[in-house]
Fold this sequence. Notes:
With about 140 residues, the protein is α/β, with parallel strands linked by helices.
Amino acid sequence: DVLLVLNGPNLNLLGQRDPQQYGTTTLADIEASVRERAGEHGLDVDFRQSNHEGELVDWIQQSRTSAAGIVINPAAYTHTSVAIRDALEIVTCPVVEVHMSNIHQREPFRHHSYVSAVADGVIAGLGAHGYVLAVDAVATLRAHP
Length: 145
Ligand code: DQA
C-alpha cells in the first residue's frame, strides 16, 4: 500500500528558505523521516514536490483510487487553489493537510485554507514533525475509518 506525500511550491527550497519560519530541515530530511515512519506502519511512500498547480492536480487524480492515503502540504496553493481542493474532494482515501508553520499565527492571507474543508485532518505549527504525525494519522484513519 502506497502513501502519497505531496509538497507544493517552494518546499524544494526548505532548509534555505526562511529558516526562522521553517527551520533548517530539508525536504530530503523530511522524506527520510516519512519513509521510516511509514515503514513502521507497513506503508510504501511516493514522495513528490511540484511548483506547478496542475501537476499536483494530475498526481492527485492519478492516485484517486490507488493511494492508501494522501499527506499534502499545498504550501502557497493552500490559500489560492480551488483546483487542488476539488481534486482532493474526489479521492476516496484519507487526506491529511500539513503545514510546518502555524498558519493562524501568520499573515491574515494565510489563515484561510481551501484544502481544509476536504481534508480529514489538519496539522500546523509543528515543523517537520508534522509530516511524521500525519503518517500516523493516515495509519489510524485506515485502521478506524
Ligand atoms: C506552508 C504555509 C504556507 O502559507 C506557505 O505558503 C508555505 C508553507 C507551511 O508549511 O507552513 O509555502 O504550507
